[in-house]
């Protein structure tokens, strides 16, 4: 049998997969990934009453010293907000709760419509990185979902590569990070509307040798609220689900966090995303609600790519 070698398991409300170039590294890589993702969940989940995020919400208005892990995850989220001009905002927790996303996705049920709750904005989060001290004003709820998985992918891929010395690809529900020496020909990545069957039904296949790749979309994680279909990518400015201009957006960048920031911001931006991505030199593939495909900034052509 030749590599790469892979293992998968459920984590963070999605499927976690690790691929390595050396067979002997698969066991240690899988164990390390399980451990690190459990730590991320305990720090960042807004659905667990025992998480650090939940403790921050309960301590609203007071200084809280947070763990190094949550401090790093929060730093990544605040940086994403700055890079995106607030289009990706960690204070959308209240917006998500108003839409009914106040528990694990599998437990969401239809409910009555509620007034939208715009995000207060990341400037309300008082954070001193050197002291790892956070103050959340009352009424500000964090949701690191837009960046926490991507942050975890970057961190775990780098650590596994450092410990094993081999090539690593970590895929957390469509948030991918590569580290270490890639296999011959690079990592072959299938992209589709649904990360669970992208290999069987790819919309495109590209090669990744380093850095990150993220796909954000509105086609899969949907539910009903007040009789209408809503999805999990919220426009922080309005508190409403982003208009479904793009069914999916895939972006490649130097890190998975940067790729995820850009793909999420692009869904929120709608048609303006094409110029926004091009001006930043970010290679991207955008699929419209009707299935038409647009690409930016040197995204590789795929002979199976068809726009309808």
UniProtKB/TrEMBL annotation:
Keywords linked to the UniProt accession: FAD, Flavoprotein, Lipoprotein, Magnesium, Metal-binding, Transferase
Binding-site list for Mg(2+): 146, 264
Pfam families, per database record: ApbE
Top enzyme category: transferase
Documented EC number(s): 2.7.1.180
Catalytic activity annotation: L-threonyl-[protein] + FAD = FMN-L-threonyl-[protein] + AMP + H(+)
Residue spans crossing the bilayer: none
Known cofactor(s): Mg(2+); Mn(2+)
Family annotation (InterPro entries): ApbE, ApbE-like_sf
Cofactor note: Magnesium. Can also use manganese.
Protein name: FAD:protein FMN transferase
Species this chain originates from: Amycolatopsis echigonensis
């Amino acid at each position: 049998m030749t590599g790469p070698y892979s293992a998968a398991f459920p984590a963070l409300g999605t499927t976690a997969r690790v691929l390595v170039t050396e067979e002997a590294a698969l066991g240690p890589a899988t164990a390390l990934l399980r451990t690190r993702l459990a730590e991320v969940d305990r720090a960042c989940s807004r659905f667990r009453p025992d998480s650090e995020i939940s403790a921050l919400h309960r301590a609203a208005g007071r200084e809280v010293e947070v763990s190094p892990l949550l401090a790093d995850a929060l730093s990544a989220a605040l940086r994403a907000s700055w890079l995106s001009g607030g289009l990706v905002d960690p204070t959308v927790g209240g917006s998500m709760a108003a839409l009914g996303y106040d528990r694990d996705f599998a437990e969401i049920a239809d409910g009555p419509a509620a007034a939208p709750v715009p995000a207060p904005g990341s400037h309300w989060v008082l954070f001193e990185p050197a002291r790892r001290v956070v103050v959340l004003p009352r009424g500000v709820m964090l949701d690191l979902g837009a960046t926490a998985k991507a942050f975890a992918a970057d961190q775990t891929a780098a650590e596994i590569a450092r410990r094993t010395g081999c090539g690593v690809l970590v895929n957390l529900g469509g948030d991918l990070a590569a580290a270490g020496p890639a296999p011959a020909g690079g990592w072959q990545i299938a992209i589709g509307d649904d990360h669970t069957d992208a290999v069987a039904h790819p919309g495109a296949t590209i090669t990744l040798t380093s850095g990150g790749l993220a796909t954000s979309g509105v086609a899969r994680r949907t539910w009903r609220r007040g009789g209408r279909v809503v999805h999990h990518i919220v426009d922080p400015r309005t508190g409403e689900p982003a208009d479904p201009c793009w069914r999916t957006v895939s972006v490649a960048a130097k890190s998975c966090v940067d790729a995820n920031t850009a793909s999420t911001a692009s869904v929120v931006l709608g048609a303006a995303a094409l110029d926004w991505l091009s001006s930043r030199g970010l290679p991207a593939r955008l699929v419209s609600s009707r299935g038409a495909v647009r690409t930016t900034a040197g995204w590789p052509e795929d002979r199976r790519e068809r726009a309808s």
